[in-house]
Amino acid sequence: MRKSALFATLWLALASGPACADGGYRLWLRYGATTVPANAVVVQGSSPMLAAAAAELRRGLPVGAGPVLLANAADPRVAALRLPVAGLGDEGYLVRSVTLDGRAVTLVTAKDDRGILYGSFALLRHLDSGGSAAMIDLSSTPTIKLRVLNHWDNLDGRVERGYAGQSIWDWWNLPDDRDPRYFDYARANASIGINGTVLNNVNAKAESLTPRYIAKAAALADMFRPYGIKVYLSARFSAPVELGGLTTANPKDPKVAAWWRAKADEIYREIPDFGGFLVKANSEGQPGPRDYGASHADGANMLAAAVRPHGGIVMWRAFVYADTDPNDRAKQAYDEFKPLDGQFADNVIVQVKNGAIDFQPREPFHPLFGAMPRTPLAIEFQITKEYLGFASHLAYLAPLFSETLDADTRGRGKQVTVAQVVGAHQLSAMAGVANIGSARDWSGTTFNQANWYAFGRLAWDPTLKPETIAREWAAQTFGADPRIVDPVVQMMMKSREAVVDYTGPLGLAHLMATGHHYGPGPWVSELKRPEWNPVYYHRADRGGIGFDRTRTGSNAVAQYSPAIAKLYADPRTTPEAELLWFHHLPWTYRMPSGATLWDAMVAHYDRGVATVGELRREWDALRPLVDDERWTKTAAMLATQEREAIWWRDASLAYWMSLNQLPLPAGARAPAHDLAWYKAQSFPDAPGNP
Ligand code: BDP
User: Fold this and answer.
1) Cβ of residue 359 lying under 6 Å from some atom of ligand 1
2) Options 75, 222, 242, 284, the catalytic residue
3) Domains of the chain (ranges, CATH numbers)
4) pLDDT (tens digit, 9 = 90+) per residue, 359-378?
């Protein structure tokens, strides 16, 4: 082979084939190495956002593609085509093969530059996931207005519950160092429709509101602006005391309100399109209005007044529970917030976690959805897998997200889904706790990238099916070859349920070890706040297991609409997957299958472990089709996952058996160690622990 031909072959293999080694850096935007000629993309008008869209198309369009025309729907030539653009809103797009001046072009049009940006990415997604370049007809408008990542990044570079390295924000060297990685971050987010990012941890430090840090946030905002991404900050409620030298942060004190107004003015001078504040107040030790006898609405409205003149908003979290409240933790947020319905200013959105406890592998939907009709409610998911095996376990989260989004809040055929509740107001939002860090592949492994991707896609369109999202992600990430896409999708689709099975099946929750939350700790009972202990949640003893949330117990079921509450009140009509969340049942309880509860539980643990074994074998078979770097990392993580799945199963069974004194069902393997061994494990160095 001639030298030049050899190089060409090598280059092609590097650029597009399984050998392409970038360690996963390019995420799902794995365009080839060639760019199309500049005139393959024609832009009508000029703005930084249109330039960003055109640059992306030039990078990403396949060779020979084009011409692509980016033009506003009001452009006379586009308007003359009489295309269905009326309902596109600010961000929706239409991508169509049309004939203009006798020439066939792919038109990307919208009412606003933002729509053109999203349409450009939609075109690339379509082509990259195997879609045809002929007769293109794509159109979509998001139903949720704010699609926001929440970074739990600390100013010292550590990421709370982050398992993919340090924070990507180099706070120390900002604002001078504008790392190109920030642009790639913005591109990735824009490609899936994310339009906001909260830069710092909800467990916030007041320093993030000092001029020094505002300048750093402003530098990031400048870089993100062409990609349609607004910057938000988590605000510490006591900042007027810590930074302003006031003696109080009481929201009813005019001096406090004035301090926040001045602070907002200062931020908006540096960041004219600043999104607003995210606040965790009176939760897990954070300061808040309750410290002064004021309500969450008082606190939120005071901050809302400060950002209102600038068009900003306040995202106020409903993740509250108090050690002074003897009630079931699952009931506390509802009890605190429902009475405040209608009392929040119209630029406040109350941010509610998907479930009533805390991002567990499975939770029934939060009862606040549907219970506060006069208040916009944002839904918050956790993309980082604090409770689903950190970055090392393969758990595709779209099924978890969709399960909540699709949940019916009303019952009796009057279906109103959680997604509809979230989308019902002018101000609507979906937030995801990011799984992004300084790791070369951003999220710790290739498959974790899919959770970032799926979050964005579902925030854009909550009705998308998890399998559809998995398919388009897999095609863009590994190439649109069914020999890889089909098995990868199959692996993804069963992965989350496997984690539920081996960590806490049948509605069990909060069984993890203390602090770092790594591995099993269902026996933990000595922590000072009762609701920090796993025993609080499973309530297992010799006779049975599960939390009675019916009328004979905490009556949390009554927080749901009557038809849903009725279903949850009876173990026979409670979905099996949520059984022990709502009911305390004897170990000998007969499941619909005829098996006892205990035997069914063991079967779930075994199924979870077996599924991870399948995932490993399926991944092994894909070795020839994936580049070495990404294949090897995932293979290593799957080996970790199998070991840890067995650990979870064995430790949990050893503990349950110490309580119920029951034998394992015939054929089930005994735990590898005794309970004392599992209890003795300690991991002071586990990552992500605040
Ligand atoms: C819990 C995390 C904790 C967060 C908290 C929150 O363990 O690190 O601060 O959620 O959402 O799940 O505020």
Assistant:
1) yes
2) 284
3) 3-140 (3.30.379.10), 146-478 (3.20.20.80), 501-547+584-679 (3.90.1330.10)
4) 999 999 999 999 999 999 99
